[in-house]
Amino acid sequence: MTVIAAMAGNRVIGKDNATPWRVSEDLVHFKKITTGGVLIMGRKTFESIGCKPLPNRPHVIVSRSLPETDGVDVCRTFEAALEKAGSYGKPVFSAGGAEIYRQSIPHADRMYLSRIRGDYCGDTYFPEFDEREWRLTEEEERAEFTLCVYERRVEASR
Q1: What is the mean pLDDT of residues 18-43?
Q2: What 3-state DSSP class applies to 15?
Q3: Which of 123, 125, 127, 151 has its CA 20 to 30 A from that of 42?
Q4: Mean pLDDT of the chain
Q5: How far, in Å, CA of 58 to CA of 121, rounded?
Q6: Cβ atoms 54, 4 nearer than 8 A
Q7: Cα(48)–Cα(43) distance, rounded to whole angstroms?
């Protein structure tokens, strides 16, 4: 699984169920990386994109309250969503929100983190993770953010 997220310098990822910035280059990057894969996201994230799936990638929504919805798979637990996403036989991407990221990080072997320049006011934050478990493999400066690609460290004893 791959985590893909954009966060401000203060780890903010959202405010009032929306992104507090508009960085079109990051949206282009998100589309490029995730097209052809499967997206796992929470109900609020799904609502924030208009309650309709993005083109060319199956969506698995984790929600205890969302009714069955045309065009997406609704799973009541993260574990069920992970299993459903894996059944597609395509790369799986965790696309938020904060709780989904928190549950995804232990399963992930890669993270694409767009670090938006500056701090923003918000009510939703990207979870802390143990950076000793990750290796920064790519760092690319873009106009409004730095793209950081992390790979999970593989211990020699495994």
Answers
A1: 97
A2: strand
A3: 151
A4: 95
A5: 31
A6: no
A7: 9
pTM over 0.70: yes
* Residue type (1 letter), 127: P
Helix (H, G, I), strand (E, B) or coil at 17: coil
* CA 62 – CA 110 distance, rounded (Å): 21
Containing 83, the helix (H) or strand (E) segment is: helix 78-86
Helix (H, G, I), strand (E, B) or coil at 142: coil
2-27 burial, b if ≥16 CB within 10 A, otherwise e?
bbbbbbbeebbbbeeeebbbebeebe
Strands 110-116 and 59-62: unpaired
- Strand ranges for the chain from DSSP E: 2-8, 12-14, 38-42, 59-62, 73-75, 92-94, 110-116, 124-125, 134-141, 145-152
Helix (H, G, I), strand (E, B) or coil at 122: coil
